[in-house]
Design a protein that fits this description.
single chain; 177 residues; alpha/beta; five-stranded parallel β-sheet; 7 strands
Length: 177
């Protein structure tokens, strides 16, 4: 499969399905022979942005750093799949402008559904007051106003979400058979 460099930025609440969708897309694109990198927010925080906290300033810096790496890879013809909560619109827009070839995917699931899926127990700990400034509980999540793709992960199957993203990348000229 031929392709152009692009950053596909998955945003949404913790547990909304960002990583799950991006992992499935990564499998498909690797199988098709695409140059690909996956930047998962949890993994990035333990390596590239270690030491940053969860204040608004630190969250913005975390996203800026991910955006910088995404930009370098994208301009070198790599498809970059970023899975990061990235709760604030303004910093997502800043990264979009820096990268240029940028497709925003909103993994959209209601907070109650994300809490049901809480495999790490983070929402439970946030509700108990053990985690302060948790996105969706006591820190805001600013949903995208016009993402290129919206995956309603509470209403659609994983395969449907994956196909929507791949179809949009093809429509925008980033992928071709």
């Amino acid at each position: 499969m031929e392709h152009r460099g692009v950053t596909v930025w998955f945003t949404g609440l913790s547990g909304a399905g960002k990583t799950t969708i991006s992992q499935q897309i990564a499998k498909r694109l690797k199988k098709a022979g695409c140059k690909l990198e996956v930047l998962d927010g949890d993994i990035v925080r333990t390596n590239l942005t270690k030491g940053l906290g969860f204040s608004k300033e630190d969250r913005d810096e975390n996203i800026r750093r991910i955006g910088f790496v995404s930009h370098l890879l994208t301009r070198n013809g790599v498809i970059v799949l970023v899975s990061a909560i990235s709760p604030y619109r303004e910093i997502r827009q800043e990264v979009r402008e820096r990268v240029g070839d940028f497709v925003e995917v909103f993994a959209n699931a209601p907070l109650a559904e994300c809490e049901k899926r809480d495999v790490k127990g983070l929402y439970k700990r946030a509700r108990a007051g053990e985690i302060k400034g948790f996105t969706g509980i006591d820190d805001p999540y600013e949903a995208p106003e016009s993402p290129e793709v919206e995956c309603r992960t509470d209403l659609e199957e994983l395969k449907e979400s994956v196909e929507k993203v791949l179809a949009k990348l093809t429509e925008l000229g980033y992928l071709s058979a």
